[in-house]
Amino acid sequence: MATVQRGTEVLSVFRTLLRTRRKCFEGDMQMLVAVAAQIRAEFEEHKSVTDEAQLEQLLGKAHEAVDFMQFNIVQAKLNERGNYEVKLEPEHAGASLEEPIPDKAPMSS
Where is the signal peptide (predicted)? Predict the structure, then answer.
């Protein structure tokens, strides 16, 4: 029975990943195809895993990937003025953009 439940959970997170990537990359066919291929490859690579601890770890990573896509990926679209626009969704509230910190040159004395 546990195996059936685990299989259902795996299928559920697989479908959630595919739905989430469809929302994140709507209109970007190249990314839709690439991300779907990556998701399928990851699941295919681990399809024979039966160890409960390893399954739990893999499912955790899959759920983290869903959260990452939902809360950290926004799509910028080129508008008619030649600028990129980003439409933030409610799930992006409170997020901030992180800019890389430039390398500091060593101080000489």
Answer: none
64: CB partners within 8 A, 6+ apart: none
pLDDT in tens, the chain (109 residues): 357 788 899 999 999 999 999 999 988 999 999 999 999 999 999 999 989 999 999 999 999 999 999 888 888 888 899 888 877 777 666 655 555 455 554 554 4
The burial of 21, by beta-carbon neighbours within 10 Å (0-12 exposed, 13-18 middle, 19 or more buried), is given as: buried
- Would you tell me the crossing angle of helices 52-72 and 2-24 to the nearest 10 degrees? 20
DSSP notation for the chain: -HHHHHHHHHHHHHHHHHHHHHHHTTT-HHHHHHHHHHHHHHHHHTTT---HHHHHHHHHHHHHHHHHHHHH---EEE-TTS-EEE---GGGTT--PPPPPPPPPPPP-
